């Protein structure tokens, strides 16, 4: 996975996790709120129904109160009271019922088949002793009981809220009830509405998360495209610089060969021709030809020295003969001879032989850095240090020059081509490079810093600091 993709993933993944956490938290809170709201509605509804039932029972008690207070307990009086209660109803499923305290049904207007039956052990589908619960509530002074009972209008079992009181004078339990299936329906509608609201909220959160992730991805894509364009521009500039450097090197070699070596060889040729002509015209005067031949030899020595100079510039022989440290010392002496720089070269650690490509890369690295310092840094002192660590070979070039804006140079495809050239060369060997910006520290060697790190064996990173924004 590429670095940009990792960065994009690191940006998107926390956002997705955060949105998922928010969605789960919102769903949990919304569900809890819906359950709390349902419980409140149910409690309020049952409270109102219980109050309504209590009023109905009080009305029924007032209807039979004269007969109960009369003191008569004969069957006719009780039957009259039952008939009066049977006529009191409030809708198809609103009626009053009577039981004695032993659980025998005395009056049931909607289910006359139950009259006379002993229902003391009657259990509903959930196993609850329905009649015993009702009688217990009546003996306790009256109260409400929830249970399951067949609904007259639908002939189906339905939840019911009953309210009962005792008629102690006759040993009766008087009660009525309201079926709660309509309440359950209302509560189910509330639950469905709450679930719909939760789903819509989750959908909104999902849409917001998707839009956010798309925006982050689009931003990353735009950044990726911009960086690709910048990288392409830098690559084109680098390729042009490589071609230009090759042509410049060829032109330089051509000039040196033509203006230096070629002229010296022509001069030596003319001197030798002059000596040959003298010998031809005056064979006996060999002594007079000796100075001419000496001059020719001097010219040939100069040619040889010039050839060595050109070869040394192409690749320092000291790299192959004495190693990188000696080559760096020689480079420093040459640079000092042609400039006002004070260059010191130091070595630490246990020296070891480096592969040719690594030694060459380190030498070119130092050569480019010193050239940049000489041309652009306006420095007086330069320190070159070569360290042979157990796991790497490090090369540092530090100076007291003015430095430059590293960040600005790195984003400009027209500048810093030389540094990028070195960086690519180092990266090809498995290394890396970095630039240390100049600082305002009092120590001169901290104002401008270039570092090179070369692991053992071949791969080597490199950190470098240069002063040429155009190289």
List keywords for this structure.
471 residues; Beta-Lactamase; 3 domains; Heat Shock Protein 90; alpha+beta; five-stranded antiparallel β-sheet
Question: What would you say this structure looks like, in words?
Answer:
The protein has three domains: 3-179, Beta-Lactamase (2-Layer Sandwich), CATH 3.30.450; 187-307; 322-455, Heat Shock Protein 90. The protein has ten helices and ten strands. The chain has helices at residues 3-69, 75-87, 130-139, 181-281, 286-314, 317-321, 324-337, 356-377, 406-411, 417-428; strands at residues 96-100, 105-107, 143-151, 156-167, 172-179, 342-349, 381-388, 392-399, 435-436, 448-455. The strands form two sheets. A five-stranded antiparallel sheet has the order 2-1-5-4-3. The chain has a five-stranded mixed sheet with strand order 6-7-8-10-9, with helices on one face. The longest helix is centred in the middle third of the chain and has 101 residues, at 181-281. The protein is rod-shaped, with a radius of gyration of 54 Å.
